[in-house]
Specification:
Layout (H helix, E strand, L loop, with lengths): L13 H8 L6 H27 L3 H27 L23 H24 L4 H27 L36 H27 L3 H27 L22 H22 L6 H27 L12 H4 L2
């Protein structure tokens, strides 16, 4: 009698998985995250090509090249997945959206810090995408993205620390014992209170400041090289809003007598040569606005102080309007690709 060897825990035959993929359709969540990932990674390839071309520091150049290789491989993997499910490949971004021969817009530390920031942001998205994906090819792709983004963040952090160019949170005293909250007014009021800021609230303020400071510098550079006056005005509006939010966030640190983070290591040059297309710059600026909104969304449930909550909600409303303005400009220029949608049943019934 023929016997079979039972599979070890977690072991699955690739032939079985391949057979299953022939009839298991990707769900809406998987397609949605793959689509947004393709937009982001093709954009990343364009920007990193320009970054790498003019980088002088060999250590930073090597790491930026690694980031470029990672994004390029991700694009190829996604094309394979799109083809396997017979899904049209988005137009997204390509060679026409970048000019690597143009003058440098940023110094080397900024390029690395900004690349690190972008991988911090997309790591959150990839982690979510992995957690809600079911097909093994999608899970494998998102898992690989998580691993490589973690790698780039780790290496970029080490290099920036070594060069003294990393934005980081201030130090606080380590408590001598564990305390319990007894005061029911722990959250205070929207007008402030006497409780000092806690470590979690502080971590979100620093993270938001880092994000806003670096994106502000990016928008300053974009405003120098963009062709469209309407889009330039949008970038300038983004810069003014960032200035306002940064001032308010720094005021929280001032009130606590804590040091403020600085971007003195990061420079925008005086170049007015168009390194990127208006399309790419507007899409990137709008995407980073949504990243900041997401940052406030994460900070809100983790910040019990009511004065912080009130500030975050107000800032979120302002940024939602800014993101909407960016989307309207994308539509006016025929640049906004439609995200895959559910079938319109109402239209089918008429």
């Amino acid at each position: 009698m023929e016997t079979t060897t039972p599979l070890q825990s977690g072991q699955i035959h690739s032939e079985t998985l391949s057979e299953k993929l022939s009839y298991v359709l990707p769900n809406s969540s998987e397609i949605g995250h793959l689509w947004t990932s393709y937009q982001a990674e093709t954009m990343s390839v364009c920007m990193l090509k320009q970054y790498v071309h003019g980088t002088i520091d060999p250590e930073i150049r090597s790491l930026l090249q690694r980031a470029l290789d990672v994004s390029s491989q991700r694009v190829q993997t996604m094309k394979t997945i799109f083809n396997s499910i017979h899904h049209p490949i988005p137009s997204a971004f390509g060679e026409e959206d970048v000019d690597i021969s143009s003058r440098e817009l940023f110094n080397d530390p900024f390029k690395l810090a900004y690349t690190r920031l972008m991988h911090k942001q997309i790591l959150i998205n990839y982690s979510h995408a992995f957690s809600i994906s079911y097909r093994f090819d999608f899970r494998d792709y998102f898992r690989e993205c998580i691993d490589t983004s973690q790698e780039i963040i780790q290496k970029a952090t080490d290099v920036l620390i070594d060069k003294g160019a990393l934005i980081h949170a201030p130090y606080i005293e380590i408590p001598k014992n564990i305390d319990i909250v007894h005061n029911k007014n722990y959250s205070g009021s929207i007008f402030g209170d006497t409780r000092t800021i806690n470590a979690i609230e502080l971590s979100h303020i620093i993270s938001l400041l880092e994000t806003k400071m670096l994106i502000r510098l990016q928008n300053i550079a974009f405003s120098q090289i963009v062709h469209s006056e309407a889009i330039r005005n949008h970038f300038i509006k983004s810069i003014h809003l960032a200035d306002k939010h940064i001032e308010k966030l720094e005021a929280v640190l001032d009130a606590e007598k804590l040091p403020k983070p600085t971007t003195i290591y990061y420079k925008v040059t005086d170049s007015v040569e168009s390194s990127f297309s208006d399309h790419l710059m507007l899409a990137h600026s709008t995407a980073t606005t949504t990243y900041i909104i997401a940052g406030y969304g994460i900070a809100i449930p983790n910040s019990p102080k009511l004065d912080l909550l009130s500030m975050y909600r107000y800032f979120t409303a302002e940024l939602l309007n800014l993101a909407k303005d960016g989307s309207m400009l994308m539509i006016e220029n025929n640049w906004l690709e439609r995200v895959p949608e559910a079938v319109n049943r109402k239209e089918l019934l008429h």
